[in-house]
């Protein structure tokens, strides 16, 4: 079952995107509690986590936060569906 989770990543040339982020991107530091993308806005960026951890937090209709994922150093962060379809982020 886990092999099917995010299986799209196997079809993406992650070396290309990592190299692009590292060579043309802007290095930013986020302190604990800072947001990469705010829920309710449309994502415009892709990030590569050089060090540290990022957690994905989604909010239920009553505003309760729920941690729905973690990304670690060496991984990418982006609201793929929202960025592709220009929809507001839910996380």
Indicate the topology.
Elements: H1 14-24, E1 47-48, E2 53-59, E3 65-72, E4 76-77, H2 80-85
Antiparallel strand pairs: 1-4, 2-3
Can you put this structure into words, describing what you see?
Helix content is 19%, strand content 21%. The chain has 91 residues and is an alpha+beta fold. The protein has one domain (2-85). The strands form two sheets. A two-stranded antiparallel ribbon has the order 1-4. A two-stranded antiparallel sheet has the order 2-3. A hairpin with a 5-residue loop joins strand 2 (53-59) and strand 3. The mean pLDDT is 83.
Element order: H for helix, E for strand:
HEEEEH
Q: State the major sheet.
A: 2 strands, antiparallel
The rounded Rg comes to: 14 Å
Please count the helical segments. 2
Structural class: alpha+beta
Counting DSSP E segments of at least 2 residues, the number of strands comes to 4
Biggest sheet strand order reads 1-4
- Counting structural domains, the number is 1
Mean pLDDT: 83
Q: What separation lies between the terminal Cα atoms?
A: 24 Å
**Uncertain stretches of 5 or more adjacent residues:** none
Helical content stands at 10-25%
Overall 3D shape: globular
Tell me the β content. Answer: 15-25%
